[in-house]
Specification:
Elements (H helix, E strand, L loop, with lengths): L10 E6 L3 H14 L3 E6 L2 H10 L4 E4 L8 H10 L6 E5 L4 H10 L3 E4 L6 H27 L4 H7 L3 E5 L5 E4 L1 H11 L18 H12 L4 E7 L7 E12 L2 E11 L1 H22 L4 E6 L4 E4 L1 H11 L16 H15 L4 E7 L5 E12 L2 E11 L1 H15 L1 H7 L3 E6 L4 E5 L2 H6 L6 E2 L11 H16 L5 E9 L5 E13 L2 E11 L1 H30 L3 E6 L4 E4 L1 H10 L12 H6 L6 H15 L6 E8 L4 E12 L4 E9 L1 H5 L4 H51 L4 H26 L9 H8 L9 E7 L8 H22 L3 E8 L3 E8 L13 H11 L4 E6 L5 E8 L8
Parallel strand pairs: 1-2, 1-3, 3-4, 4-5, 27-28
Antiparallel strand pairs: 6-7, 6-10, 8-9, 9-10, 11-12, 11-15, 13-14, 14-15, 16-17, 16-21, 17-18, 19-20, 20-21, 22-23, 22-26, 24-25, 25-26, 28-29, 29-31, 30-31
């Protein structure tokens, strides 16, 4: 009998576990939660029986993976001895079928070893449940023993008891019933009260029906949840039982039992089952089980997909597992492995499949027991192809290692885990860093002590992570390393990890001095930023102007066009690859429809003179048949002489109104020129202001800090070293700010980086400590989406994320992108402050998004309410392809 009378006394826990390490972990966690626990460990069946008979434990914690002795066997032995003590399975893995079966047979709970934080609450719940059962058992025994104790048992029971007559009036009730009514309904119950008077008005018809059924001789039972303010809810099982005297119904006995612990345990078990199912079916490893007739018992999704790819149909329970899609030799090997497992052997083999593509798999086999009988085997297969290839490559590299070490100028090193020593091979360390260590072991902590303080934690963490990852065989780390002369060198340290049975035994590495490369990269990044700023400024100016504008390089090839040019191309049905970008405009002019041969030659010659700086400008007026009417345009070609660019600007200005209203010709042309000039100036000022703010607020402040610190160094040379170190860190921060600014300004090149990769690079830019941005991509058919649609969606996403960052005050943002047979869908939602529906379409940014989507025959819809977040849904037909000029 479990000792529950004094819960403050020592609780004796018997652990059945063949792994002392796992048992010690359980003891440690439970002891931290409650110092009253006292433990004994049994590793075999015999030891377990001895402890049951001699020690009298209060709680049993059972590992289901003991050889030739599982949880069901242990439960059977406990039940044979009539021991009413908590019985909890604690194991690494348990199937849903086994968990359900052992709970049915009498186990109190099961806990997976990766969720040991749930063990102590489970023990507490089981102890309380057993205490309730023992209380009930004691009450029943007292009732049988003496009617004189009936009232005491009645009032001390931990279940509600209410007795009524045939009219429904209460004739007796116990103390717990009074407590429950008072606690959950705030009503005082007394003998003589009618049960319907204690019931809320909406429930009275239901209770009246229950009373009627009980008075007719039927026992009615149901579960009900009671809710109380600021307290957890409680569940009760309530039963209406007829009370007979001399075979005549004389009243009703209403009982209520608190089943909250049981309900919570059931919900927790359901949660664990769902998690276990998700874990099994979300792994790429194959999992399946086979009975002794070589028929499939169960399998996970990865296994089903593999069988589907090989046989054309998904496997079903009971299918023959030895399908004829394998070669005869391979079928024979698998059959032999199954038979070994059927004999009780647990083992692991490596399986090599050379065709149609080479693959290595590590397959594990575990016998499945039902009682003492093996009924099948559980199998796990993990793809280790990359690891095997890397190990083969590593072996070949190791053979050439000694020769390379002497031939190269790199700093070659070899760390041995067994001896904890590092061997420096060849003259690399002496040549690169000045240390006189050639073909000899370095002193302990030689490498760690020379890492730059700002890099040390990061480098040691990355090195530890690489070693801990059993599937990683090579890696590289960049950091600063102290030379003998006191200077720091930037090094690129590349290394290979040699493993035996997944255990690291050696690391072979080579250091390269990349200090010069780092300096060159810094200058290149600076030049790249300047070019990107200039390109962004020119794009903004072009898109501000109403004229159709193209930029030509020095040879006459189109390198950029503005939005008006693209819009004109769509309106007039002109086609071409990417709006004729990268096409030669001189050739286009000579062959242009509507221009005669002489006029085409004249235009080409005029533009060529502008490109060669023979003239300051070239103008040409022409007519064009539009979809609705004839229009007139003036083409103006002017040279573009920037520091970094040579070429020309081609503007096509609509002058149709001049020809329709000749009297206002001069005024119209003049006004058009003024608009262009104002737009150019406004765009320039706007762009300069924005870039100036970015540079002043971020990069300029960092450069100012560097200037001050360098000034200090010039004044105090003897104190300059730590200040220069800080300067390097600030320079790195300025480079990061510059890189982030350029990334936000430049549209990705989707022909080089896919749409998915570009979006995945964009999303992290908007992560903050208090804001999480989640990207979900579902069935994205990248090749079916045109570059124009990708660019549009990218800009819309970028603008909406900026809006969320500035206005939404959101902590969670979800971006979902998917494609169907006919359309591409993108949804951007957040849990921010939202806004009123009347303001949904008021902003220029929202209107711009709607216009962009509409240009591709798509649709846009927004949903928002104050305090309920914001959602933007875009749908664009994939089949629709806009025509190009």
């Amino acid at each position: 009998m479990l000792r529950f009378e004094n819960i403050t006394s020592q609780i004796q826990v018997l652990i059945l576990e063949d792994s002392l390490q796992d048992a010690e972990l359980v003891e440690k966690l439970l002891a931290e939660a409650n110092p009253l626990y006292h433990f004994r460990v049994a590793q075999t069946r015999a030891c377990f029986l001895k402890e049951l008979d001699t020690w009298k434990p209060d709680v049993l914690l059972i590992d289901n993976c003991i050889t030739d002795f599982d949880g069901i066997d242990a439960l059977r032995l406990v039940q044979q001895r009539s021991l009413n003590i908590p019985f909890i399975i604690v194991t690494e893995y348990v199937s849903e079928e086994f968990a359900t079966e052992i709970i049915k047979q009498g186990a109190d709970d099961f806990i997976l070893k990766d969720r040991l934080h749930k063990l102590e609450p489970a023990i507490t719940a089981a102890i309380k449940q057993k205490k309730l059962e023992n209380d009930k058992l004691k009450a029943l025994k007292l009732l049988v023993k003496s009617e004189e104790n009936l009232k005491a048992v009645f009032d001390s029971a931990t279940e509600c008891f209410i007795l009524t007559d045939t009219k429904g009036e209460i004739t007796d009730l116990n103390n717990y019933a009074r407590f429950v009514f008072k606690h959950y309904t705030e009503r005082d119950v007394a003998i003589g009260d009618h049960i319907l008077d204690l019931t809320d008005e909406p429930r009275r018809p239901y209770i009246k029906n229950l009373l009627s059924k009980a008075l007719s001789g039927e026992t009615v039972q149901f579960e009900r949840q009671f809710l109380t303010e600021n307290q957890p809810s409680h569940w009760f099982t309530i039963a209406y039982n007829p009370v007979k005297k001399n075979n005549v119904i004389a009243g009703i006995c209403i009982t209520g039992r608190d089943i909250t612990v049981q309900k919570n345990a059931e919900q927790e078990k359901e949660f664990d089952r769902n998690n276990l199912y998700a874990l099994i079916n979300n792994t790429k490893d194959l999992m399946w089980s086979v009975d002794r007739l070589f028929q499939l018992i169960t399998s996970n999704q990865a296994f089903d997909e593999l069988v589907m790819s090989m046989s054309g149909k998904y496997p079903q329970k009971g299918n023959d597992i030895l399908i004829n899609k394998f070669e005869i030799q391979q079928l024979s090997r698998f059959k032999s492995c199954y038979e070994r497992a059927f004999k009780g052997e647990t083992f692991c083999v490596e399986e090599h499949t050379p065709e149609p593509f080479e693959m290595w798999a590590e397959v594990s086999f575990y016998p499945i027991y039902k009682g003492d009988t093996i009924v099948g085997t559980a199998c796990f297969s993990k793809n280790i192809t990359e690891r095997k290839k890397a190990e083969d490559e590593m072996k070949q590299s190791n053979e050439r290692y000694k020769v390379v070490a002497m031939a190269t100028s790199d700093g070659i090193w070899d760390y041995d885990f067994a001896t904890d020593k590092t061997f420096i091979a060849g003259p690399g360390y002496k040549h690169l860093f000045g240390y006189d260590i050639v073909n000899q072991y370095s002193e302990p902590f030689f490498w760690e002590s020379r890492l730059h303080p700002d890099d040390k934690d990061r480098v040691l963490t990355e090195m530890s992570d690489a070693i801990a990852d059993k599937n990683r065989v090579q890696s590289a780390i960049e950091y600063r390393f102290l030379k003998k002369n006191g200077d720091y060198a930037y090094v690129d340290d590349r290394f290979f990890i040699l493993r035996e049975n997944s255990v690291p035994v050696k690391i072979l590495g080579a250091k390269q001095d990349i200090t010069v490369k780092k300096n060159i990269d810094e200058q290149l990044n600076k030049n790249y930023l300047e070019k990107q700023i200039l390109a962004e400024r020119m794009t903004s100016i072009l898109n501000t102007l109403p004229a159709n504008i193209a930029l030509l390089d020095q040879e006459g090839f189109i390198i950029e066009v503005n939005e008006s040019w693209k819009k004109f191309a769509h309106t007039h049905g002109y086609t071409g690859d990417n709006y004729c970008i990268n096409d030669n405009y001189l050739n286009i002019s000579e062959k242009a429809a509507g221009w005669g041969a002489d006029e085409g030659t004249k235009v080409a010659r005029g533009i060529k003179n502008v490109l060669q700086n023979n003239v300051k400008a070239f103008e040409f007026e022409y007519s064009c048949e539009g979809p609705d009417s004839k229009k007139w345009f003036r083409m103006i070609a002017t040279p573009m002489n920037e520091k970094k660019f040579d070429g020309a600007v081609i503007m096509h200005i609509d002058i149709s109104d001049k020809h329709r209203m000749e009297q206002e010709r001069f005024k119209s042309v003049l006004e058009e020129q003024r608009k262009i000039t104002r737009a150019v100036l406004q765009a320039q000022e706007k762009e300069r202001t924005r870039l100036g703010q970015e540079l002043h607020d971020n990069i300029s402040q960092l450069l100012a800090a560097i200037k001050m610190k360098i000034g200090f160094c010039l004044a105090y040379p003897d104190k300059s070293y730590p200040i220069l170190t800080e300067c390097i860190s600030i320079v790195q921060e300025a480079m990061t700010e510059a890189r982030n600014l350029s990334h936000r300004m430049v549209l990705p090149r989707f022909e080089e980086n896919g749409f998915r990769e570009s979006i995945e690079l964009l999303i992290p830019q908007y992560h903050l400590q208090n804001r999480k941005v989640v990207l979900e991509i579902d069935r994205l058919q990248d090749k079916r989406v045109s570059a124009e649609i990708k660019e549009t969606l990218y800009r819309i996403l970028q603008e909406q994320l900026n809006n969320i960052e500035k206005h939404a005050k959101a902590s969670e943002v979800l971006v979902h992108i998917s494609t169907s047979e006919k359309e591409l869908t993108m949804k951007i939602s957040d849990n921010g402050i939202g806004f009123k529906s009347a303001k949904k379409n008021a902003g220029i940014g929202i209107a711009n998004i709607f216009n962009r989507v509409k240009s591709f025959n798509g649709s846009a819809m927004i949903s928002s309410h104050p305090g309920m977040g914001f959602a933007l849904l875009l749908e664009i037909p994939i089949a629709f392809q806009p025509e190009l000029p």
